[in-house]
């Protein structure tokens, strides 16, 4: 038994009816550990000395009888200790303190002013890991892990050595697409190069997660993990799969559930459990990578492997050694070799190795993933980032504001600088609201909800509108509405501008042709160059008639634009339409009062306005099938418009 170097009393055993405590005194001095055994009828008080820097380190006292009060006293003692550590801080203030202390990357969204809606955090070393090991990721949801009934979205990566690690965690208010898209967008932002995005992302058959994946990671391959297929494969192929590492990706998610244990913890307690498991994972991964550097088998002490030692993972060397045994059989004959090793692992196959029999294997023939022996330095550092210019802009803006504006801006900056002094509150605990309705209430008519700005829509479309949601009117309202409809939050409008700017740059030739020349293309491009602080002029307002093509193509959505003057539907220009139209994502925006954009939520089977004028002539061949499922409802919209056109008011003089 290993003994910690600090003095610690530990409870060693617990049984159902009769409990005996073995208390081990571990000391760094020369005294041997003292073992004290107490009978089942004795009162016990246990004091635990500090054993770490985590949230739960420190003294706490457990006292009680073994018969019926041990669990209660233990729970009360832990709660009292956590309250003493937190002091006068609220739960959210203490959580922000913990995140800042360990330099976690974190974001959150609020609702009803200060109530947390979604929260996302990531360990700083996990960012380096996910960039170094970016081939395969698992995304899954876990439930009943906190007292607020938030769903936990867990992101898990896989190292080349076959080990799994937690990348980040997102507690979401609900399982709606906009919540999941918000978390996936932040996860995508961790990848510092566009060509280093995940190759494969494994999910279960969660339609919300799958639809969000198509929006954010439409370039990646999405594999499904189906339970009945899993059972069938395990039953028939169990003998062919290694027992130790067969299901490590799924077991990583199960390990997290085991650590979180119950559904009564607050956000601080679940963060502490996550932080502990992440620390252990990183320690084990570092140890497995260091093995390749310090441990060299006698098999590899030959000229053939001279250029690979301490440069390539031990697992890859073992694969090459096994493939080298086939050289005498395959030689340089490709038909005998089969290229299996090169195709599956991107390592030299038998016919390649036959060329290096008298020399050594070049390092360039090994894929980069097998050459990453550390995740602390992967060349991921970006150019030096400075905020000097932004701070000067903020200072100038502050001087231009009135007293109320200065107080508001000052409070926002204070929350950024002092996370532990924020005014956020955790969501209220969800309670059972299924109560019996009274007989009188069932007979009362339900008043019709009056939606704002309904007069800005054609009369026939009123019954097909489910809701109209306004956004802040600050000249960026169009991009604010789009950001909210995509699930990123209204304040992420500048992120949308950045995405659209990258879309224009990447497909510049297509959009120059679409917009009729370079001059108009450059105008639209300059309109997206915003910093969020300087005043926005009219030339930077969103022109939905042209920007609609860019939005639909960048986010792979169907964008509906409604107004009294001109309504149209935009489809993606390049992507292939899924066969099942039920997975299509439709978002709707409306231009009202001639100078403002709002969000519109449409009901199912709502008539859609006609196709955008330039779409058919500029879409790629594989995208031609996008409008097919909507031809009938577009025709229905056209018929309604024709009825309106021939409408005559007979009461008019």
UniProtKB/TrEMBL annotation:
Coiled-coil regions listed in the entry: none
Pfam family, one: MULE
Domain MULE transposase: 136-232
InterPro entries in UniProt: MULE_transposase_dom (IPR018289), Zinc_finger_SWIM (IPR052579)
Name this protein carries in UniProt: MULE transposase domain-containing protein
Species, as recorded: Glycine soja (Wild soybean)
Species lineage: Eukaryota, Viridiplantae, Streptophyta, Embryophyta, Tracheophyta
């Amino acid at each position: 038994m290993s003994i910690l170097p600090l003095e610690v009393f530990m409870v060693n055993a617990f049984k159902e009816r009769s409990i005996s405590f073995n208390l081990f005194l571990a000391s760094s001095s020369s005294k041997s550990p003292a073992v004290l055994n107490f009978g089942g009828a004795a009162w016990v008080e246990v004091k635990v000395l500090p054993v770490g820097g985590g949230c739960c380190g420190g003294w706490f006292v457990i006292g009680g009888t073994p018969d019926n009060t041990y669990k209660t006293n233990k729970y009360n003692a832990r709660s009292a200790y956590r309250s003493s550590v937190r002091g006068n801080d609220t739960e959210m203030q203490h959580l922000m303190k913990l995140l800042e202390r360990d330099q976690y990357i974190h974001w959150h969204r609020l609702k009803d002013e200060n109530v947390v809606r979604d929260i996302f955090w990531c360990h700083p070393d996990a960012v380096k890991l996910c960039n170094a090991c970016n081939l395969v990721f698992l995304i899954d949801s876990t439930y009943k892990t906190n007292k607020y009934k938030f769903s936990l979205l867990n992101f898990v990566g896989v190292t080349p050595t076959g080990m799994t690690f937690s990348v980040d965690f997102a507690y979401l208010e609900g399982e709606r697409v906009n919540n999941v898209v918000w978390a996936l967008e932040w996860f995508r932002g961790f990848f510092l190069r566009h060509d280093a995005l995940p190759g494969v992302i494994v999910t279960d058959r969660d339609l919300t997660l799958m639809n969000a994946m198509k929006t954010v990671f439409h370039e990646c391959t999405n594999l499904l993990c189906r339970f009945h297929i899993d059972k069938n494969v395990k039953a028939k192929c169990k003998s062919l799969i290694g027992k130790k590492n067969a299901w490590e990706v799924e077991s990583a998610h199960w390990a997290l559930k085991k650590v979180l244990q119950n559904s009564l913890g607050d956000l601080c307690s679940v963060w502490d459990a996550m932080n502990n498991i992440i620390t252990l994972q990183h320690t084990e991964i570092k140890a497995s990578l260091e093995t390749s550097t310090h441990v060299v088998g006698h098999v590899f002490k030959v000229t053939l492997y001279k250029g690979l030692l301490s440069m390539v993972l031990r697992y890859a060397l073992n694969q090459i050694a096994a493939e080298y045994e086939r050289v005498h059989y395959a030689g340089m004959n490709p038909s005998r070799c089969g290229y299996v090793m090169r195709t599956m692992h991107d390592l030299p196959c038998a016919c390649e190795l036959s060329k290096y029999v008298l020399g050594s294997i070049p390092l360039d023939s090994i894929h980069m993933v097998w050459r990453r022996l550390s995740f602390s330095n992967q060349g991921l550092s970006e150019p030096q980032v400075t905020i000097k210019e932004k701070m000067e802009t903020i200072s100038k803006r502050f001087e231009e504001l009135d007293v109320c504006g200065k107080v508001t801006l000052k409070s926002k900056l204070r929350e950024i600088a002092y996370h532990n002094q924020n005014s956020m509150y955790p969501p209220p605990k969800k309670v059972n609201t299924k109560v019996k309705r009274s007989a009188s209430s069932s007979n009362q008519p339900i008043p019709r909800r009056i939606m704002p700005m309904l007069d800005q829509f054609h009369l026939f479309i009123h019954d097909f509108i489910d809701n109209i949601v306004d956004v802040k009117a600050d000249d960026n309202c169009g991009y604010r509405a789009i950001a909210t409809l995509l699930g990123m939050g209204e304040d992420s409008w500048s992120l949308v501008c950045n995405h659209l700017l990258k879309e224009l740059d990447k497909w510049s030739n297509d959009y120059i042709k679409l917009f009729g020349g370079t001059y108009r293309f450059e105008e639209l491009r300059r309109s997206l160059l915003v910093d969020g602080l300087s005043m926005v002029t009219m030339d930077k307002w969103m022109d939905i008639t042209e920007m609609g093509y860019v939005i639909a193509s960048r986010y792979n959505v169907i964008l509906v634009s409604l107004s009294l003057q001109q309504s149209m539907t935009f489809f993606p220009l390049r992507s292939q339409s899924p066969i099942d139209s039920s997975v299509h994502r439709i978002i709707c925006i409306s231009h009202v009062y001639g100078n403002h954009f709002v969000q519109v939520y449409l009901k199912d089977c709502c008539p859609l306005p006609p196709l955008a004028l330039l779409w058919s002539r500029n879409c790629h061949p594989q995208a031609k099938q996008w409008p097919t499922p909507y031809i009938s409802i577009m025709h229905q919209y056209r018929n309604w418009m024709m009825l309106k056109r021939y409408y005559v008011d007979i009461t008019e003089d």
